[in-house]
């Protein structure tokens, strides 16, 4: 009788413990599920430096040739400043690539209205010839002074306006007269090699004409 009583008690204790064991098992499964459903943070795409020096993601893209455009336009600005320093003072009224883009020819108008011609290396950092004073008469002097007085935009500012109008490389830029207005007249070569001839008002910077040059 005593043995039967003990056996019965063990069965009751075992049955009482089963719900607790089941609950613990379910809790463990739930914990595993929670961990599985939590995704690890995705690795960020590496930053790639484009040809123009800008950083972009793996899906980013840069405009082809923008690096060479920037280098060419920086060289133009440097060449203009190098020529002006070689003369000592004055206003750059014309700059253009020469010899297949291996150098720059720059004209600087001094305070007396005369022109000084300076040749500068392609990178714009050093003179290769000049300054040499060009032959000018009274009419040339008067025209030079009128151009300088009307040009509120410097050659660098004019070049910047040109590439904002048509992205590319400025190959030629100079002060000229168009329909009675003093303009900066320049050529921009875009990435496809097409030349655009653009005139901007030398005082306001407003674009006056913008045409594709089909002579090439």
UniProtKB/TrEMBL annotation:
Keywords: Signal
Gene3D superfamilies: 3.10.450.40, 3.30.505.20
Ranges for domain PepSY: 153-208
Pfam families: PepSY
Biased amino acid composition, Low complexity: 39-58, 66-81
Signal peptide annotation: 1-27
Keyword Repressor: no
Region (Disordered): 29-82
KW Magnesium (keyword) present: no
Protein name: PepSY domain-containing protein
Species the sequence originates in: Curtobacterium caseinilyticum
